[in-house]
Amino acid sequence: MLQVVCVSWGERYSPAVVDGxxxxxxxxxxxxxxxxxxxxxxxxxxxxEIEVLPFPRFARPFPTLGWGCxxxxxxxxxxxxxxxxxxxxxxxxxxxxxxxxVLARELERHGGMLMLRxxxxxxxxxxxxxxxxxxxxxxxxxxxFRPGEFTQLFDDFNDAATWKHAGRLPSRLRTDxxxxxxxxxxxxxxxxxxxxxxxxxxxxxFWPAWQGLIARLPWxxxxxxxxxxxxxVGEDFKPARLAAVRPGDVLRYKRRRVRWSTPEFSEYFQxxxxxxxx
Length: 278
Description:
7-stranded mixed sheet; 3-stranded mixed sheet
């Protein structure tokens, strides 16, 4: 059994996105799937095969937790998820293009916490003794873990959220992924780029022509064919926008841009949204 979980609050993502993701996961997964959505909507808003759970109690007021995406830390709350099942968390702007059991096998091979690579240098491999107090800052759009091993993370966040901080807020309390990275630093690994990537890191550069040359390299083409999930970030890269984009359209992320050349990604989000609507 594989436990797959997402988190949805407010109006940014419709239930159709959750429903479509659930169907994409089940269609391609080689293991039985328990698909869970932690949501502030009622269960009736989603497809029957989705298990809908309410948010756990946080020490800070609920509205303040959307900033920094701290509501995502719900996945670590004690008693919410099956503690011993291999679990994959997915942001809702993630494209599922393969078998999530492959990510679970990576977790079973290494244990601990798996995140997306966030930097070029693999400093997560360095022993903490070489950089006292430092930690690799991973990306939390895709996670793999066993919930029972990380319930203290949720408890420690609630404790930290009530502290009175003099001066500048500690960096680990600025976003969910910083807190996760800091807390799990002794057990943190990142997914290989052949399994899970951020679109902005894998497909976008400051020089679109250079990115086009990279895309033609045999080992890059092979790696991209094998990728199980690709996650997106930025207003230009939300599911509804990606479903409508056409080859040749220019999309921007911060100071970088990409000329859209992956129509199969658009077809995926079109399918997700269409199948999600009931």
